[in-house]
């Protein structure tokens, strides 16, 4: 059997799990520290998938949403009005950068997390490309409009 490439989610998950113990740093996206979305950004970047920077943008980058009961390893799960993101590591667990004063860790998905759950996405390159196209259109200058002259 031919050597198949490692699925992106496995590469991303291995990256995130390797960062356990790294300090939480607000706005961080490097080995010196991560915030929640910075960790997801770098994990999927290691897998060849470019994500937007913030949790809200990461959620919006994909049109297909994943329900709580359908979560799989590698999925990005969003909580607290899109204020937090973690990656599903195994059934009932996620790896994430929780808060200031804490470190990247794997934790069990508690009932509190379930009550704060907004939705999840399963990152794929095509979803991010569509998001990038939408952002490019939003950033484009408005077309010149004809003006009436007297």
From TrEMBL:
Classification via Gene3D superfamilies: endopeptidase domain like (from Nostoc punctiforme)
Keywords assigned: Hydrolase, Protease, Thiol protease
Domain NlpC/P60: residue ranges: 6-124
Any Gene Ontology biological process: proteolysis
PANTHER family: NLP_P60 DOMAIN-CONTAINING PROTEIN-RELATED, PEPTIDOGLYCAN DL-ENDOPEPTIDASE CWLO
Single annotated GO MF: cysteine-type peptidase activity
SUPFAM superfamilies, per the entry: Cysteine proteinases
Protein name: NlpC/P60 family protein
Family: Belongs to the peptidase C40 family.
Organism listed in the record: Nonomuraea solani
Bilayer-crossing regions: none
Record carries keyword Protease: yes
Pfam families: NLPC_P60
